[in-house]
Amino acid sequence: MAAAPGYDADAMVNVREVMISGIWDPELSVDWVTQKLKNVALRRIKRDVYNTEFPSGCYVEPDSANFTLVHVLITGPEGTPYEGGFFYFLVRFPPNYPAQPPRVKIMTGNNTVRFNPNLYKDGKVCLSLLGTWDGPSWTPAHCLFTILESIQGVMNKEPYHNEPDLSIFGTVEGHSERYSDFVSYETLRTAVCGMIEMPHPNLPASLQSKIKELFMQKFDFYKSKIAEKKHLDKQTMMVDTYGREGETFNFKRVKKRLLAIHEQISNASTEDTLAASMRKQCCIKGSPA
Predict the structure, then answer these.
(1) Per-residue model confidence (pLDDT) at position 131
(2) Termini Cα distance of the chain
(3) The overall pTM is greater than 0.70
(4) Model pLDDT for residues 255-272, shown as the tens digit of each residue
(5) What's the pLDDT at 282?
(6) What average pLDDT does range 44-68 have in this prediction?
(7) Average pLDDT of span 2-7
(8) Per residue in 103-144, pLDDT tens?
(9) How much of the chain is helix, strand and coil, in % rounded to 5?
(10) What local confidence, expressed as pLDDT, does residue 286 receive?
């Protein structure tokens, strides 16, 4: 099976390097490229991708060049620090699916933000279902739906408590709230503004359009969230569950970006409406009497 453009194409990436990396990255699946897709996998992928309704807030788009790749947009669940965010995941099915689980990577943030103890900065998604963490493992009874449902499950109201090391070191008073504030900020800054201003090059156009549509629907929420959190400006962020500190909050700057995006989308929508109206008028004038 040939590699899709943008995936597995680097000749410097060999199977040994993939083994060292832990074999989790769908973009570094050269060990799967040389294997023929089994018929049972073909049928099951069709069923799981094309003949399935997905959890609310999940949008799935098959890759146009590679049948085993799927692009997924998950919107942050309501009532959590992730609400309103656009989280892009790349999913790759193995040649012997469903005997093995897919490989999944979070692409939002481009290796700059750890959104959750289970969602690493390098894109790794830590779930026992995927074989990337301890716990109940994958069985052929699982499917893409259950994976997406599990990812939504870790994007909860208090992601701080997802950290497994808390069972060893214990919790620290105030850290859960501070970590949630960091996640809320990065959701607005990176998973909203960043996803629209500089969308990932592999994100399908259909999902880019969906993001803009949902952005307009959530715009009032974004404004209310900024108003709620603006008192944090110039305070230092707690960037992980271990209490490490990073840069300072700048919700004022994020608000400016949100307003600029809203204006850009609104203007584009107005232009599209005018263009459609002009085409309609031309058709009417050109119609026979």
Answers:
(1) 94
(2) 57
(3) yes
(4) 999 999 999 999 997 666
(5) 57
(6) 94
(7) 43
(8) 999 999 999 999 999 999 999 999 999 999 988 999 999 999
(9) 45, 10, 40
(10) 56
* Spatial separation of the C-alpha atoms in residues 248 and 15, rounded to whole Å: 41
Are 49 and 70 in contact by the 8 Å Cβ rule? The answer is yes
Alpha-carbon torsion angle 88, 215, 188, 256, nearest 10: 140
Beta bridge partners of 91: 70, 104
Structure tokens that stand for 64 in this block: 């146009």
Distances (CA, A) of 121 to 54, 60, 76: 26, 23, 17
Q: How far apart are CA 89 and CA 78, in angstroms?
A: 19
Amino acid identity of residue 127, one-letter, is L
Q: Is the pLDDT score of 48 beyond 90?
A: yes
DSSP 139-155: -TT--HHHHHHHHHHHS
d(CA 78, CA 161): 18
User: Of 108, 46, 30, nearest to 74 (Cα)?
Assistant: 108
| Amino acid identity at 243 | G
Which amino acid type is present at position 94? P
Closest CA to 85 of 202, 225, 243, 203: 225
Pairwise CA distance, residues 212 & 221, whole Å: 15
Backbone angles phi, psi at 278, to 5 degrees: -65, -40
Please state, in angstroms and as integers, the Cα–Cα distance from residue 18 to each residue in 1, 8, 246, 289, following that order: 18, 11, 31, 69
Tokens linked to 140: 């052929």
Helices (H) and strands (E) in the chain, counts: 9, 6
Distance between CA atoms of residues 250 and 254, nearest Å: 7
Catalytic residues: 126
pLDDT for position 6: 46
Tokens of 184: 């809320």
pLDDT recorded at residue 9: 43
C-alpha count within 13 angstroms, C-beta hemisphere, residue 18 = 19
Structure tokens at 92: 């790759």
